[in-house]
Specification:
By secondary structure, this protein is an alpha+beta fold. Helix content is 44%, strand content 28%. Strands 1-2-3-4-5-7-6 form a seven-stranded mixed sheet.
Amino acid sequence: RLRASMSSTRKARSSKIALIDFERAARFSGRLFSLENAMDVRTARASDLAEIDSLLARSYPVLLKKDYPPSLLVTAIPLIARAQPGLIASGTYFVVELEGHIVGAGGWTIAAPGGGPAADGIGNIRHVVSDHRKTRQGIGRALMGHVIADAAARGARRLDCLSTLMAVPFYAACGFEEVGPVSVPLRPGIDFPAVLMRQSLG
């Protein structure tokens, strides 16, 4: 009887813990659903330049510091963490707004990064960032879903992406596959390690 009573107590405790875990997960899922509903993904405007610039400047150093040495970041960040007016004006660069603030940005172009040759039907993911203070809230997923859908609607058959080292799992979750490591020349003597990733759009 004592064993049966102890077993029943353990089962009750286990059920209670499982219920608490389920309720926590449900509340978290509810918050994500609420946030995603509140997000607005739209085409970037020239007037967004300063806010995108600020987002890049504050988030890139934090997001990249785990995977790149300080000696590289001190020279690379001033080159890569700046909004690009031409990209913003391209019509295929987008921002994610939440509560009136830009919390994500990114897009795609036929033109390759760094002025490389364009290839018919092949798009290139460009200058993606999400607010480092709001990671894992669906911002990047909402942005990339919009970018991929826009590229497909405009006739792109494939998307290439030069991913930072830390963003590889994120792009993989968005349907991209690793091609291999690459080195992106930022300036003479400054090469930035990245990973070429690719997604077929059918």
